[in-house]
Specification:
By secondary structure, this protein is α+β, with helices and mostly antiparallel strands. It contains eight helices and six strands; from the N terminus they run ααβαααβββαβαβα. It has one domain: NADH Oxidase (3-Layer(aba) Sandwich). It has helices at about 15-30, 45-55, 75-95, 100-105, 115-120, 145-165, 180-185, 215, and strands spanning about 70-75, 125-130, 130-135, 140, 165-170, 190-200. α2 crosses α6 (about 145-165). It binds 3-iodo-tyrosine.
Length: about 220
Amino acid sequence: MSPYVTMPLVFEGVPEDQMQGRAEAFLARMRKRRTVRDYSQRPVPRELIEMAVRVAGTAPSGANQQPWTFVCISDPERKRLIREGAEEEERAFYAGRAGEEWLDALSHLGTDDNKPFLEKAPWLIAIFAQRWGYDAQGRKVKHYYVPESVGIATGFLIAALHDAGLATLTHTPAPMNFLNEICGRPDNEKALILLVVGYPADDCVVPAIGKKPLEEIASFL
Ligand code: IYR
């Protein structure tokens, strides 16, 4: 058991007359985020990636266990291996494993088993969930609300990268076990998401899709 130790909250509020404007500006910025599948090879400095991962690391998590590992990959050989592993899974997916209903749900996104962005984009971030951890004595420590925590941190990461002027793709080849070996991660970690990061290609197009309006995603009681 750890003791309950407190400190004063440093709460940086926003003046009331600026709150609505701030909220609107943030929405306008976030609305401009698009998932990008066609990348330029323009390099992205490592410092930008580091900063965004630091933002992800501020996310709330079950018991503050921070059960995530972000493996940031720019090494071309590793990217090649990841593409190879992902495309193998995707070939099986598109050739039948997905089933007709799933492929039908995806059809408007124009995706297929060819994943050139996994080599072209300057960075891949493999996001691992630590299903359990270890204490200082090497004993297993149970982790709580792991998918929720890692999902929230990934949302922070995507928002931070977008805000820094970078494009992302949330890629989830399934299963992703091949990532453990390529990324050198132990068995207690499970790859949840492979985030592709970079600049869009000059002639990049995206699916003509939109987001649901407030009335469809919220109710107020
Ligand atoms: N992982 C596959 C298929 C795919 C699945 C969903 I759900 C998407 O929103 C998009 C793609 C792929 O990346 O092609």
